[in-house]
Amino acid sequence: MRVHRTIVWSSPSRRGVTTPLVVAALLAALLCAALILDRLWLETAALELTTASEAAALAAARALASDERLRLPPDPQLLAHRALEAAVSAAEQNRVAGTPLLLNPASDIRIGRYVETSQGPDRPAAQFLETDHQATHVQVFAQRTRGRGHPVALLFPSWTRVAAGDVAVQVEAGLEHRVVGVRPFAGGPVPALPLAIWREDPAGQRTDTWRAAIEQRLGRDDLAYDAATHQVRQQADGLPELTLRSRPRSGAIDRVNVQLVDVGSAFDAERLARQFSRGWSTDDLQAWGGELRLGGNEAAGTAGLPLASTSVLGSADRDALEQIVGEPRIGLLYSTWAAGQRSAWDTTQCVEFVALRVLAVRDVSDGSAEVVVQPTVLATRTAMTDPAAKVNPYVCRLMLTR
Known about the structure:
Layout: H1 15-64, H2 76-92, E1 95-96, E2 99-100, E3 109-116, E4 126-130, E5 137-144, E6 152-153, H3 157-160, E7 164-165, E8 167-176, E9 179-182, E10 192-198, H4 210-215, E11 224-226, E12 231-233, E13 242-245, E14 258-261, H5 269-277, E15 292-293, E16 305-310, H6 315-323, E17 328-338, E18 346-363, E19 369-375, E20 378-380, E21 383-385, E22 395-400
């Protein structure tokens, strides 16, 4: 009788070896995840820092576009001070890694302008000059660094052995005054009125023109707009005024110095009311390709843009003007206007952009209207510029330049 033996081999348990390997792999994965999350957190902080810095630079540049530029003499130190305050305030309203961005006006913000240089081909054509005289640009240097004592705290310092990281950006915003046109964008109409003002009397006798009353400062200075209370006060503010007069019901029209122009409204009452209230939309400028250009004005030798017009301001137009008292708006200057021969509308030759503020609207017994305006400085992203155009002291483009 044979006996068969079966031998079963069993390997020793390796459970005590694999467990540490799994734990080590898990720890390595967690460490990698912590590093990735810290990196993403730092990139997010850098993006937030850029956004906050851009907001600060734009706010400061907008503060430079002030009526103070039109006063004689202007106070550049006051402008610079307001720009610094605007930058610091805008920065504090934006958070970086959960805390407000704090800017040091003495070291983090530079105000100045670009000047042409001729120091050889190795030097740029224009260099930034830090000055408050005729300042048009603002540079912001924002930092959240360990050297400044305010770095970005990371999420997993106990895992990565790195407690904080550094982020720093430099941005620049500026004003460009060589304006040749305007172009609205989605949700951003041109802040303009469908009004054209007589630029100058060729005979040099009338003083109720923009050139005489505003630029030669022959206009009265009786009113001032208080932006804090949104009220017009009976006091001088250093800005001359011009009284615009519309056409009366009958009689002589030799005192007329303003035209209601057709900028895509076809003089429809509803469209005109919207333009007085909000400005020109892309649809309004469809006939001109979505933008309104006056060429380079005198610098480019252009004759201007002819627009259908009327010198009558109806009651709805006057009411609309009363609703925007104190608000800065773009207007047009015209050189000539001619009565319509084959049309019910006149033709006005518009040649320049200006910025104005309505101070008062009055009805006159002869059916005409008087609108008192003063010049202002308006910065808008809808302005179009050309280096060959002349400087426009009233309208400028607000933009990020770096």
